[in-house]
Design goal:
Blueprint: H1 5-25, H2 28-34, H3 39-67, H4 69-89, H5 93-103, H6 105-121, H7 126-155, H8 157-182, H9 204-224, H10 227-234, H11 239-267, H12 270-288, H13 293-305, H14 310-320, H15 326-354, H16 356-377, H17 381-387
């Protein structure tokens, strides 16, 4: 398979920005508490992250349809740099909350633009293209937390995370130059649709997927911000050990991406999406009962397996979206999903304050319902098109 310059620049962009982001992102809950923020601030931060993902996804997709993915990605990268600068200049938990409004924008708003790029570059093999994106995205996810943990171990929590943010700012600057130089403008004309019209593109099959996906994200996000607190504070393992567990998770996800993409193109997408939902559901329970490091390794292997059909799910969304508004439809889907999920993320602190068991088992319950509903009502792309 021959990759053109736009695909190459996208891969470089994802690695560079992702590396800077992931050096600090997994440790931000600990950073907030080190700066004097309460457990409720951690919960609010997690909710804000989900809410921003929701609010940015639709305008991000719409802007990509309007001005093209290249210009949109340049704008989004510059916004992320502004957020890192705020946190670097003012090391307070309040600055983290303000800065996150900007640096969390990149992941949210860039995803529809990247999906649009892949759709144009690899129109007949979208699952493979999305899997390549997901694979290279996991490279910094696997390596960067280990380096971040080592920096924190040497310089302490507050200075160590600040250094990670400085590195993130510099890598964004390098990525900006790469995008400007290598990425080509899209060939398709700009989309003229109204911003709100993208919601009309959510057909019944997409709505069924969306409802199950929301419940599955409850299962992910209710414990998400507290996984590092559970491992480091409650179980007593070090940040470096948590970084290693994260690396195990990401390596597991990376290994399975391309084989799954191959079989999903041959066998249909629904079975792989369903398998993903199962792994999302069982992780919180397995994590709760994992009290030794070997047991945690198994738990994070399962956490890595939850990425089993994630590229396939994204390809399914793109399959069902209109040809001239794929980024906008993708953004509308994520806006609706993440706005609802942000409510669950905010409730996570209250559940954690009751007990870790309440947090983890509530997450499991939502995941089980979402999995069963998708197993019964979920459609594959070909089935949905025939029934439509």
């Amino acid at each position: 398979m021959k990759l053109n310059l736009s695909m190459v620049s996208m891969i470089m962009m994802v690695v560079l920005i992702g590396f800077g982001e992931r050096m600090a992102e997994r440790f931000i809950p600990l950073y907030i508490t080190a700066l004097g923020g309460s457990i409720y601030v951690v919960g609010a931060f997690n909710a804000l992250q989900n809410l921003l993902g929701a609010l940015y996804s639709l305008p991000g997709g719409h802007l990509s349809d309007k001005i093209g993915y290249k210009k949109a990605l340049l704008v989004f990268t510059a916004i992320a740099m502004a957020g890192y600068l705020i946190v670097i200049v003012s090391p307070t938990w309040q600055a983290v909350m303000v800065g996150s409004v900007f640096f969390f924008a990149w992941s949210a708003v860039s995803m529809p633009a990247i999906m649009s790029l892949i759709n144009q570059v690899m129109p007949t093999r979208q699952t493979l293209g999305i899997s390549i994106h997901s694979l290279v995205r996991r490279i910094p996810m696997a390596i960067a937390p280990v380096i971040g943990g080592l920096i924190i171990g040497v310089y302490g929590m507050t200075l160590g995370v600040k250094i990670a943010f400085i590195v993130a700012f510099l890598l964004c600057a390098v990525s900006l130059a790469v995008q400007w130089k290598l990425m080509k403008e899209p060939a398709s004309p700009a989309e003229k649709a109204n911003l709100l019209s993208h919601f009309k593109n959510l057909n019944p099959a997409l709505r069924n997927l969306l409802f199950s996906d929301i419940l599955i994200r409850f299962a992910e996000q209710i414990p998400y911000a507290f996984v590092v607190i559970w491992v480091v504070k409650d179980l007593g393992f070090t940040p470096v050990e948590f970084g290693l567990l994260t690396m195990i998770e990401m390596v597991t996800a990376t290994v399975i991406y391309l084989p799954v993409a191959f079989f999903a193109d041959k066998m249909g997408k629904k079975p792989f999406v369903l398998a993903t939902f199962v792994f999302f559901t069982i992780f919180p329970v397995i994590l709760y009962y994992s009290r030794s490091f070997p047991a945690l390794v198994l738990a994070f292997l399962i956490r890595g397996m939850k990425e089993f059909g994630e590229p396939t799910r994204k390809a399914l969304i793109m399959d069902l979206a209109p040809a001239n508004a794929k980024a906008g439809t993708f953004g509308a889907y994520y806006l609706l999903r993440d706005i609802v999920v942000s409510i669950a993320a905010f409730s996570s602190a209250f559940l954690w304050n009751i007990s870790p068991e309440a947090n983890f088992f509530t997450a499991f319950g939502f995941g089980a319902i979402g999995t069963v509903l998708f197993a019964v009502y979920g459609k594959d792309s070909n089935t949905a098109k025939l029934s439509g």
